[in-house]
Structures are given as structure tokens and as C-alpha cells.
Amino acid sequence: MNTTTTLSPATADAEVCEIDLGIGGMTCASCVGRVERALRKQPGVIDASVNLATETARVTAAAGDPALTARLRRAVRDAGYEPRAVETDDDPDRERVLGVPRNAWPVLIAALLSAPLVGPMVGDLLGKHWMLPALWQFVLATPVQFVLGARFYRAGWHALKAGSGNMELLVAIGTTAGWALSTWLWWRADAGEMVHLYYEGSAVVITLVLLGKWLEARAKRQTTEAIRALQALRPERARLLPDGVRRTEMVEVPVEELLPGDRIQVLPGERFAADGEVVDGHTQADESMLTGEAMPVPKAPGSGVTGGSLNGEGLVVVEVRASGAQSVLAQIIALVQDAQAGKAPVQRLVDRVAAVFVPVVLAIGVVTLLAWLALGAPLEDALQHAVAVLVIACPCALGLATPAAIMAGTGVAARHGILIRDAEALEIAHRVQAVAFDKTGTLTEGRPRLLFLAGEPGSDEAALLVQAAALQAGSEHPLARAVLQAARERGLAWPEARELQAVTGRGVQGTVDGALLLLGSLRWMEALGVGMTALQPAVQRALAQGASVSVLARRDAPDRLTALAVLAFGDEPKPGAREALARLRERGLRLALVSGDNRAAAEAMAERLGLRPEEVMAEVLPADKAAAIRSLQQGGRVVAMVGDGVNDAPALAAADVGLAMGHSEGASADVALHAAGITLMRGEPQLVAAAFDISRRTVRKIRQNLFWAFAYNVAGIPLAALGFLNPVVAGAAMALSSVSVVSNALLLKRWRP
Questions:
Q1: Who contacts 115 (Cβ-Cβ below 8 Å, separation ≥6)?
Q2: What confidence score (pLDDT) does residue 160 get?
Q3: Do residues 255 and 238 lie in contact, with contact meaning Cβ atoms separated by under 8 Å?
Q4: How buried is 221 (Cβ within 10 angstroms: 0-12 exposed, 13-18 middle, 19+ buried)?
């Protein structure tokens, strides 16, 4: 993947774009701060966020400047780092020399050169004298210091020019001091005199730091496994069937060339190349990598399929609906990348600390040196203590603590069908105190059926059903589909309605066979003044069953409406919905059901779901759901909204964190809901508690990492300054700290919903 530029949907009107850059050479939190400052100084840049774990930067800037990307890359280079393409599927261990990964050779060579220098230390423990001559120590240590350690000098020099500091600067100053002291002691010694030199300290510190960075890179790579696994689902080619006009035979084409309307053949065991609809054949699809659903999903003509899912044992023909960047898989990958590239609010505090960390450590190192000299210690001892301070204080672990946990948490969540849009949503979710649920499609199946249609005594119910079906023929509303399904089951055909007009949140009106008809909610009919006296028994019967009620009416005159029929609709709770709500209640969360149904119907369904009447907010129009959320937020309560992501978009945006329920066969818009911070790929209420759980566990890992990163420096710096740690031990501890932080974050990969 190359450098990418995308127009931000939320700010398209203001022509704001987002640019992703890869950045090589960053090693600590101080590097992150310096790159961000360099990027933010560029004209047109609104904000810049750098992620140490992914080694990427996301820049928000005003669109329309064709040279902006080039200027950003130049700014990264001038700051001392390497601009590069954003890669998520590269494997540095894949390229090998003599069977050893190419990026491991510097570590191996440094270890081989340093090993003879460590020999005397081992010999002392065994009572042996294995000291190498000074010339040999110099010959072995100098390549490690200035060739293999050249990266520290380059990066440290760039940091100095920028008026800041970083890990490389601390390592370069500390190890150079040790090497220079050893060379000076050797130079001033008398001929034949055996002097104690410190070449091994500097060489081993560089070797350990190189080893730590190599192990850290391998560990960080595991945090991006989720994205690489999703990208591996993309087939490279598809079998394009002839269209009878331009193509008379089947051809294989790259999936990038597929267009909506194309028909492709998918063999058993292959992955679907694009989102589409089965038009011929029967099979089952394994969608586990996309939705977390372990069971294969049956597919027949008319069923939707998602690109990247695995075809079962049937040969099918699929008509393409979306491919490329518009596909569900592409949008899932984009959501995961956005979350991993984002910066959690807690990270901003870490960045402020890191900005002053290196200068403070340098000052502590100077004070340590002067203090030991003032106490009468030899120069070599004072210098060793100062070097230990510089080495052990490297803020690598500090910079990795938060992004490593976020990457691991969002990655494992995506593998189980929970897509977290940004780090802020992840951090907020664990603090949720109340959860509001939409009813239809969220807690219920969302496929209501027509329980009964009742007209006035002597009326023709079949004719009334035909009129209702004509009004609903062009609608995708669940109640409309229920009417059409009932008409089909009775073998009825309906005429085409004219002058159709939808009334948002209320119903529809149109002309059928010359009659102006209205079909909508009971509340709408009451507001219009429709007389319901003759149909009141049918209304009461429907409400007693907890059914949703619609009324079919005819406009006989501009000011006179006649009720023709009552339509009662019933829905079923989703499997496991009652248990999922009970689990949330056990966690101490306040629950609320927000529904547009009348109160009787809403309370009847709430009872089946285990909710209390006071937890029901009924007769709430889609436009008023956001206000209902704000009422729950009174008193500073943190509220989550769970909806199907269509009519619930305002409420999802109003909530502190929105959870949109997608569907395995839903449109790609279900996945790309920018109003929701979290998208649940399976329409299962149990995933709500799972989303809160992975949020809680990820935030716990962030806190653990930050605690140990800070505690490590708080404890290590005084110990080094007081002389309890030598540079070699400090180097090993510093390398271990970074690896331990990433390894702790990787424990999240074991999480299961």
C-alpha cells in the first residue's frame, strides 16, 4: 500500500483530507513528538498523529494542495527519519542471508564482536584471568561503536539539530563516553601496564539495544496480524462470465477490474471476490474471518455474499454489488487501520511527559557525574554511573505502552466481529454506565410478520391487503416487507401505486386505483383525526398481544378520512437477547429500550426481554431518539446507544459511544457507519457485553504498561545514579522493558468473547 490520501466523510464539506505516511527510524516517544511537531508546521496541516507501534503518521490537512504529500515527506526526512510507503503486509524476516533474517545480521555481528570482550567478566566469576590486550579490545569494540552503532549517532544528531532529544541520543552519549574513557586510559598508560578498560560496557550496551529493538519489532509485528489476516482474504483474480455483448466466453480478470453488475463464477473452496448476490446455485459461506460467526451461512439465489468469505461445496454465480474500496472487507480493514492509527486520550499525557523526558535525563546524568566527582570518586567510576543513568532512562517502553495495547485489542476484537472505529471509543466504552437499545433489528429479529388484518364487518380483507401491499411495494421497511410477504403467501397481486409519498417516522400515502390511501402508525392516524370507533376492538386486540399497529385509511375529502383496516405486526426477540441484557444488568449498567412503537407494544416486548416498564421509552420518533439519549446523559452519566445503524444514526452520534449492529448479509453501509464508534458485525446482542469487556481489558493493559514504564524509570534512574547498576545491566533492563510492554499487550490476543 502506498501513501494514501482520503477525503474525510465527516468533513467533506470543508474539503479536509487525511494522508497516511510510513516513517522509519522512530524508536521512542520523543521521536513521536518530534515528527508530529515537524508535520504540524507545514502549511495547510490541521493536525498530525504519529503511532510508534505502527510507525505511521496520519495527517489531517486542507485538501487541494497537490504538493502537500511531498512536503510532508520532506519534513519527515528533515526531522531525521525515513519517509516510506505505508506497508502492513511486509515481512522483514522473509528476506534471509545464509539462512538468517537480513535485519538480524547487525545484532548477530555485534554479539560475535562483543562476546570476547565479555570473557573477562565471566572469567572473574570463575577465578580466571582472561583479559584481552588493550589493542584487541579496541579492535573489537570500535566497529560495534561506530559502524553497527552508527544509527544512534545519525538519529541523535538529527535530534540535536531539532533542539530535542531521543533514545538514540542517550545511547550515543553514554556509549561514546565509555569508549572515549577506555581509549584515553589506554593512551595514557605506561608501556606494559595492564589497565582496566570499559570497552565491553559500551559494546554490550549497543548490542543489547540492537537486540531489544529487533525483538521489539518482531513483537510489534504480531500486533498487526489482524490486518494482515484480513488482507489475505482478498482473492487476486475472479472468473468473469460472458455478458453476450462484449464477451462471449468466461475470462479471468484481476478483482480490481470488477464492476457492479458483473457476474462471476465462484468454485467450491474459493473465496468470493466481491460483495454481491447469488443468482444461481446453492452453497454455504464461511464468514468467520469477517463476522466471527463460526457456523457456515446457507446461500441461495437472492442471498447476499461478502467478498473474502469462503465458499463451501457449491458452485455459484454471483452478481457483483460492490468491489474494491466500496466492499465490506475493504471498509473493515479501513476501520481497523483507523483505530490502530489513532491516539487514545491517555496517550496525549504520555506525549507531554516524553517531550521533556530526555532533557531531564541528560540533566540528571550531568548531575550524577558531578556529584560522584565531588564525592571523590575516580573519573572512570563517575562516568560509568552517568552512562548507566543515560542508558536505563531511554523512553522506549513509554512510547509503546498505549499503541501496542490498542493495536492488540482492536485486532483481536476485529477477529471476533467487533470493529472499533477509533481509540477514543475503545477508551470510553469501559466507562459506560447506561445502555440504550433500539428495539427492531437490534433486540428483535427485525423481521416482523403480519399477525392479522381486520377491517369493518363485511369488508373484503383480501382487497384491503392488496391496497396495503400496493402502498408498500417500493419500501424496504420491515413492516412493509411483512405486508408484501403476507400478500404473496395468499397469492395476491397488487396494482402500482401512484404519487407515493413517505412521511418520515409515520407512514406512507399514495393513490391506488384512483383512491387516495394512507398507511401508517396509530399515532399518526389519531393526529390526523381519523375516526377509529368501528375498528377500536381490533386495535385493543392487537395492543393486548403486544403487536405493532398500523392503520389503513382513505381520504374521502380534504378534511375527511375513513379508517379501512387495522394491521397488527409481531416480532420475535433475538436468541440470547434476554440473557445478554441480564448480563449487562449484572454488571451494574442501567438499561433502556428506545422504540417508536406504542407503549403497550413496547412494554409487551420489554417483558419478553426481561426489561421493566420504567426502562421503556416508547413512541419515540427517529428524530427524537437523540434527545432521549441526552436525557439519559443527565448528571454526567456515560451512555452507550445500540442500534441497527440506519434510523438510529442521530442517536448513535449523540451517545458517548455508539454501537451499530451490522449483519452478515447487510449492505456495506452497515459496516461504514461513521456515526458509531463500534460496529458489531453480527447482529447478536451478546456482542455488546463483549465489546465492553475488550474495552475494559485493553484499558487495563494500557494502565499496566504505563505503570511499569513509569515505574521502571522512576526506580531505575535513582539506582543507576547511586551506583547500583552498571551500564551493561542498564542496557539489558532497557531492552527488556520495551519487549515486556509489547509482550504484555500481546496477551490480549488470547481474549475470547
A1: none
A2: 76
A3: yes
A4: middle
Rounded distance between C-alpha atoms, residue 307 and residue 239, angstroms = 14
Per-residue pLDDT, 49:
85
CA distance 533 to 536: 5
Tell the residue number behind the cell numbers 416482523, with chain if given: 448
Calpha distance 57→4 (Å, rounded):
11
Ramachandran angles phi, psi of 545, nearest 5°: -85, 0
Residue closest to 660 by CA, chosen among 694, 624, 621, 688: 688
d(Cα 201, Cα 387) in Å, to the nearest integer?
A: 10
CA nearest 226: which of 292, 283, 170, 270?
A: 292
Written as one string, the DSSP assignment of 102-140 is GGGHHHHHHHHHHHHHHHHHHHHHTT---PPPHHHHHHH
Pairing relationship of beta strands 590-594 and 434-438 according to DSSP bridges: parallel
Distance CA 445, CA 140 (A): 72
Q: Measure the CA–CA gap between 348 and 84, rounded to whole angstroms.
A: 25
Nearest 5°: CA angle at 111, between 107 and 113? 120
Q: What is the pLDDT of residue 672?
A: 34
**Whole-number Cα distances in Å, 252 to 228, 246, 258, 322, 500:** 25, 15, 11, 18, 44
> For the chain, how far is it from start to end, CA to CA, in angstroms?
31
**Residue appearing with cell numbers 483530507:** 17
Task: State the Rg of the chain over Cα.
Answer: 33
Residue 459: CB atoms within 10 Å: 14
Alpha-carbon gap, residue 469 to 451, rounded angstroms: 15
Nearest to 443 by CA among 582, 306, 305, 288: 582
Q: 625 forms bridges with which residues in the sheet?
A: none
- Comparing C-alpha atoms, which of 330, 391, 333, 325 is closest to residue 362? 391
**What's residue 689's pLDDT?**
92
Predicted local confidence at residue 293, as pLDDT? 61
Q: Partners of 436 in the beta sheet?
A: 592, 641
DSSP code string of 291-337: H---S-EEE-TT-EE-TTPEE-SS-EEEEEEE-GGGSHHHHHHHHHH
Grid coordinates of 288: 468467520
Helix or strand run (H / E) with residue 557: strand 548-557
Task: Divide the 753 residues of the chain into consecutive groups of 10 and give the mean pLDDT of each group.
Answer: 44 67 79 86 89 82 85 88 71 67 84 81 61 84 91 80 69 80 79 69 78 70 66 84 80 88 90 90 81 74 87 90 79 70 64 72 88 88 82 70 81 84 82 90 82 87 92 82 91 89 84 90 87 86 81 87 89 88 92 84 86 88 82 90 74 85 50 64 87 92 85 83 79 72 85 85
C-alpha cell at 324: 474494491
pLDDT at 582: 93
Residues catalogued as catalytic = 438
Residues 551/532, Cβ–Cβ less than 8 Å: yes
Query: In sequence order, what are the residues at sequence separation of 6 or more whose Cβ sits closer than 8 angstroms to the Cβ of residue 222?
Result: 746, 749
Which H/E stretch holds residue 653? helix 649-654
One-letter amino acid at 238 equals A
Output the pTM of the full model: 0.65
DSSP letters of 8-74? -GGGGGGTEEEEEEEEES--SHHHHHHHHHHHHTSTTEEEEEEETTTTEEEEEEES--TTHHHHHHH
Angle formed by the axes of helices 167-188 and 727-746, to 10°?
A: 160
